[in-house]
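Internal tracking record. Fields below are filled automatically when a chain is submitted to the structure queue. Please do not edit lines marked as system-generated. If the sequence contains nonstandard residues, flag them in the REMARKS field before resubmitting.
Queue: standard
Priority: normal
Entity type: single polypeptide chain
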Amino acid sequence: MIDTEKRNRRRHTILSAKKSDSTDSRTPAQKDRDRLLYTSSLRRLAQVTQVVAADVSHVFHNRLTHSFQVAQVGRRLAERLLTLHADLISRSDGLDPDVVEAACYAHDLGHPPFGHIAEEELNELAGTDVDGFEGNAQSFRIITKLAQHSPLHRGLDLTRATLAAVLKYPWRRGQNPEKPNKWGAYGSEDKDFDFAIELRGRKNDRTLEAQLMDWADDITYSVHDLDDFYRAHKIPLHLLADRKYEHEREAFLEAALKRHPERTGFWADPQALRESFNEVMIGLFPLADRYSGTWKERAALREFTSQLIGRYIGETALRYSDGLCELQIDDHLQLEVAMLKELTWTYVIEAPSLVSQQFGQRQAIRKLFEIYSEASHHERDRSLFPAYYREAIEEAGNDDKRMKRTVIDLIAGMTEAQALAMHNRLVGVSVGSGLDEIVR
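SYSTEM-GENERATED OUTPUT FOLLOWS
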């Protein structure tokens, strides 16, 4: 049996040595959750793409609404598992719903403007000399170094438990050959990373709270995109749910399998994928026609998405192994969620209209990087940088790696409106007013 008091002290340890406020009745995890909820990095996500830009006529989910929903699902998962498996958890390394919720708020903070297109472009521009760019590693950098909470320290000064829960990929670049394109921290955050992973104590092993954050993310992403793109007439759910349209389902399955030619993991058994998709789509989707926006359709669609989330929360369990609790998710649930996520890729992300838009976004990111990189090496041009980033450039001295990382921090921390407006101003397309500060 693990010493609960000792375990909690270890989980709630912070890297700094600040004094506690005796008038504050919140738990350490609740403080973490509140700091993340109030950071400006979270507010920025209101103008960052989930799939389609947030400023179009249809009200799509953005990264902020997504993060709120992930936090709600993650918390409910944790609360339910605490009720059902209290004994297993007491013998393991713990589970705190506030830690899960905090990690859910933090999980997308490093997501750059324009989504995964910008992530790929920034990674290519960064190169190997500064550990590339990865959205999850950028999230960890934000909460440990870039965000502000107190003049006494950098970052948000979060507990070990919350830092570990944010690490969906608890390894550095190149340390996990099974996922070479994913990592959880840059070398510049080594001290915080090492501090966080001590909690679990096993190489490349996520804490239970990190597993819950990741599963909540998958659930939420798969379900609310269906809602968005069925309403926007992009995903024909009514056809996919109709037994008469077998060709539509087969065409979708073929496209999904084409995206995963490795045929490993979920994709090794096309028949199982087909059956799981048919179960959730033919068996549960309630509408027979193209969405027109009637009260009945709105209510039925909301009931459907609620039913899916309840299904995935309600059938999640724990198993106990080698002194630790692990998330246990039935294979058919994971197959369902995987296929629901593929709908967005097939019908939206790979559509020619979005691909052409993403091409332009990639060019904007590249041009911003080129301009700011050049400016960082010339003192006369450093006034192009907002004060916070100008200070970082000056502190870097002649360290090219630190200057490159600062340029990436600046671009990745913009909203999409800021990135486009600043690109247009710097290349002379639309210079705007000299009194208007685009990025602060």
